[in-house]
Amino acid sequence: MYTRVKQCIGRGTIKKLYARSCSTDPSHVEPKPFEDIPGPRSLPVIGTLYKYLPFIGEYSFVKLHMNGLSKLKRYGHLVREEIVPGESVVWVFRPEDIAKIFKAEAGLHPKRRSHLALLKYRTDRSNIYNNGGLISTNGTEWWRLRREFQKVLSKPQNVIDYLEDTDLVVQEFVRLCSHEKADDFLSLFSRLFLELTCLVVFDIKMQSLSEKERHQNSRSSRLINAAFTTNSAILKLDNGPMLWRFFETPLYKKMRRAQNYMEEVALEMVTQKNQDTSICGKQSLLEQYLKNETLDIKDIVGMACDMLLAGVDTTTYTTAFALYHLAKNTDAQEKLRSEATALLKDRTSPITPETLKNATFTKAVLKETFRMNPISVGIGRILQTDVVLSGYRVPRGTVVVTQNQVICRLPEYFDKPNSFIPERWLRDSNNIMDQTTREKSVNPYMVLPFGHGPRSCIARRFAEQNLQVLLLRICRNLQFTWCGEPLGSLSFLINVPDGPIKINFKNLHV
Ligand code: HEM
């Protein structure tokens, strides 16, 4: 019937009829044009890059959350910017708009515009990789990888199977902290998370916490440096004129060398496992990938590199911020300790799935840490359909970046937004807490530390399990105070603490 009508009156007539019906509908408001979205003035050739110049520019590429706050104050909840002329980026501050972005990608393969130089590096090396890997590939090729890897990586039982080994590594780490006097604990945290990542990725114990591996030229140290070098180069390589597309710039070269090393280790580990025919006990994740006929060695090497790249710094910095807040807020530290002592009768009682299920305050501490210090300013997407945000039409193909880090510190959404109050995330009204600090209802698109939807963090369960075990063990066995300056963050793609992690740990003999 509809086809017949369509044939009779033609497309143009339908459009006119639709437009007329809209204009007579009093509730219909035509979206405002994309070009009218307010934002900083972009100049020919240099775009808004002049605003990011050191010393004289009002913005900085390493202070994305501060830029976000000042753009919100000046231009409002939706801001359009052409950092490079002709390439719009839209910064999105309203949780209702953030929800629309994620809802619009339902049923599609969500796309990100990031890690472009890494994509080039890997596509140039087709003898080692099939594509840019999970992080930098978009479209159906991304989904081919994601579908197969997440079957294994996100399966709850697979994550639980690593709990015992994780706990043993964390116990060793806590023993080290108890007598370590470091000017900056960050590198020790990185060693812990490299160890835990390699356990899952390569099924090996790197011994990253050992005396030998703590040497600056050891394999662990070089892997940690390679991940940091790559992560901190990506944002700069992704923005600006991207000259590395035409010739090897010094920063691209730095990233290439870091990736060369990471790939060398990944290749060695994966090949070794592939040749190892011994069958023992339960299958590791790597063994499950190697048995999967829809994946080949190149896919697995790419995935191993992605995991090293995304697994170490993220959890390291989250730990730094969580311990900073707990050290500064002794009430919260004591509450976590009470929970840990109730769940773990003595210092070496094993952490079980049941322990984690009941660790509600520990989980609230992590959520509050993510509210105040998320690992990224927000989530980036390339829109795949036209969307109306804050009354403006934003066309398909536009890069949008949600500003969760900025809005999570606004008083319109959170009481005392700059205070660390884990209790705001506890639902149980019997809990000892001040009713005024319990959030009434928080929009679910406000705190999104792991992203959202099918493209969200593939290792979320592992990361959360590792962090929960760590907080429980540290608070069960150690007491700690902060000896450094107030801690803020710098945006190096992911948010890095802007000062040393100075903590004084004291053993608790209970
Ligand atoms: C505190 C810890 C972590 C945080 C906060 C975090 C956060 C994120 C975020 C925000 C994304 C992008 C999500 C999106 O675009 O919607 C992501 C993606 C990813 N994460 Fe994590 N992550 C963490 C730990 C890890 C760990 C431990 C690993 C691996 C061992 C990992 C591997 C990945 C990978 C491979 C992706 C790309 C997924 C894809 O594009 O399909 N992450 N993570």
TrEMBL record:
<dbReference type="GO" id="GO:0020037">
    <property type="term" value="F:heme binding"/>
</dbReference>
<feature type="binding site" description="axial binding residue">
    <location>
        <position position="457"/>
    </location>
    <ligand>
        <name>heme</name>
    </ligand>
</feature>
<dbReference type="InterPro" id="IPR001128">
    <property type="entry name" value="Cyt_P450"/>
</dbReference>
<dbReference type="InterPro" id="IPR017972">
    <property type="entry name" value="Cyt_P450_CS"/>
</dbReference>
<dbReference type="GO" id="GO:0005506">
    <property type="term" value="F:iron ion binding"/>
</dbReference>
<keyword id="KW-0479">Metal-binding</keyword>
<dbReference type="InterPro" id="IPR002401">
    <property type="entry name" value="Cyt_P450_E_grp-I"/>
</dbReference>
<dbReference type="InterPro" id="IPR036396">
    <property type="entry name" value="Cyt_P450_sf"/>
</dbReference>
<dbReference type="GO" id="GO:0016705">
    <property type="term" value="F:oxidoreductase activity, acting on paired donors, with incorporation or reduction of molecular oxygen"/>
</dbReference>
<dbReference type="InterPro" id="IPR050479">
    <property type="entry name" value="CYP11_CYP27_families"/>
</dbReference>
<protein>
    <recommendedName>
        <fullName>Cytochrome P450 302a1, mitochondrial</fullName>
    </recommendedName>
</protein>
<comment type="similarity">
    <text>Belongs to the cytochrome P450 family.</text>
</comment>
<dbReference type="Pfam" id="PF00067">
    <property type="entry name" value="p450"/>
</dbReference>
<dbReference type="GO" id="GO:0004497">
    <property type="term" value="F:monooxygenase activity"/>
</dbReference>
<keyword id="KW-0408">Iron</keyword>
<keyword id="KW-0503">Monooxygenase</keyword>
<keyword id="KW-0349">Heme</keyword>
<keyword id="KW-0560">Oxidoreductase</keyword>
